[in-house]
Structure formats: C-alpha cells, structure tokens
Amino acid sequence: MEKHRYIGKTKEEAIEKATIDLQETENNLIINELEEVKGGLFKSKKVEIEVVERREVVKYIKEYLNKLLKNLGFTANIEIKNKEEVPVYTIYSDNDALLIGKNGKNLKALSIIVAQHIMRETGHNFKFNIDINSYKEKREKSLENLAKRVAREVATTKIPVKLDSMNSYERRIIHNILTDNKKVYTESEGEEPNRCVVIKPKED
After folding, report:
1. DSSP one-letter string for 29-71
2. How many CB atoms within 10 Å of residue 86?
3. DSSP state, 129?
4. Is the pLDDT confidence value at 38 over 80?
5. Among residues 18, 20, 47, 17, which one has the least CA distance to residue 34?
6. How many CB atoms lie under 10 A from the CB of residue 87?
C-alpha cells in the first residue's frame, strides 16, 4: 500500500497538491496530517500530510486477508463487491464452517484482526465487511424471516417472545426489521454473551 507525502503552506494547499498529483477527488483519499514542518529564519511553517488512495486500501485488505488465511492453513479465494459504497470481501475457503465458527464467532474475530491492522496502517477506521460463502447474507435473511414470523405470533397471542441469545450485529438486524411494526416492539435484555431480543406486543 503506497503512502504519499505532500507539503503546503496550509493543509488545504497540501491536499490540493495531492488531488492534482494523484488525479483523485478528496473523498477518495485517506489523509493524515503530520507534524508541521518548521521554517527557517525567514520561512513560514508548512504543513505535511500523508495520503493513501482508498482503492489502494481496498486492494491491500484483500492481499492482507489472503496472507492471513494462508498463515492459518486455509486455501481460499476472495471476491470483492461494493454494497452501498462499502467493500465486501466474500471468502470461499476449503473449510467455511471452521472459518465461520459457532454463531459466526471466528468470522467476527477475523474481521476485528483485519480492522485493527488497517487502523494501524492508515490511522483511520476504514469501513469494510468480510463474509464467508455468503454466510452473513443468508443469516440476515434467516433472521428477517424469524423476526417477521415471531412478530405475527406475538401480535396474535399478545404474549412476549424471547429469542435465542445473539451478538450485537444480529440483534440490530432484528430491531431494524421490526422498528416500524405497528403491532409489536423490540427490546434487548440480559448480559453479554447471553444478551437477547424480546419481541413484545404493543398496547391497542
């Protein structure tokens, strides 16, 4: 991942130099301001920035993932697609079940490791998602069906239903699916890692 440095009288001037040189808009650049460059006796201070192109980061994450998986003993292919302008890395490996782990535990750990590495390399919280053989996509669809089915049951019986314990990502999916439901509402209860969603009837 190539890092570029530019100096200007102001940060804005340095950024302008970067956009012209790299032929990219500012939105497509990750910019870190470095320490001010001290001027001489008759020279004013200047600002130095370090710049990384977003497309370089996207490519670097795939390379880092490949290296990580190889070191862990997995044979894998990785596809990159954009979902709402966020890169999604879908891994197809020789042991998807082990890589995913129970309730996606290993997948979550892998995502955290990569995110922390990218934060160290770029100084920014770069948004991306990692999926394994569309596990997250299938899981989201399964949770959506579960939420709607239980919501219908609760609306009919007027009896709250406690779902199985889920991680924060899965609980958020349930909450979001039912947030506009006119007959039920959702609450999270319990302590991690046994925190769960309860679907409750609204009063008439």
Report:
1. EEEEE-PPBPP-TT---BEEEEEEEHHHHHHHHHHHHHHHHHH
2. 11
3. E
4. no
5. 47
6. 20
Q: Does the model's pTM come out above 0.70? A: yes
Q: What is the pLDDT of residues 66-103, one digit of tens each?
A: 999 999 999 999 999 988 889 999 999 999 999 999 87
141's enclosing H/E stretch is helix 135-157
What is the C-alpha R_g of the chain?
23
- Asked if residues 30 and 51 have their Cβ atoms less than 8 Å apart, the reply is yes
- Chain Cα centroid distance, residue 124: 12
DSSP code of 181? -
Helix, strand, coil: what percent of the chain each, to 5? 45, 25, 25
Contact (CB, 8 A) for 174 and 163:
yes
DSSP 103: G
> From edge to edge, which strands make up the β-sheet containing 161-165?
161-165, 196-201, 184-189
Arithmetic mean of pLDDT, 142-152: 95
What is the rounded CA–CA span in Å between residue 45 and residue 4? 20
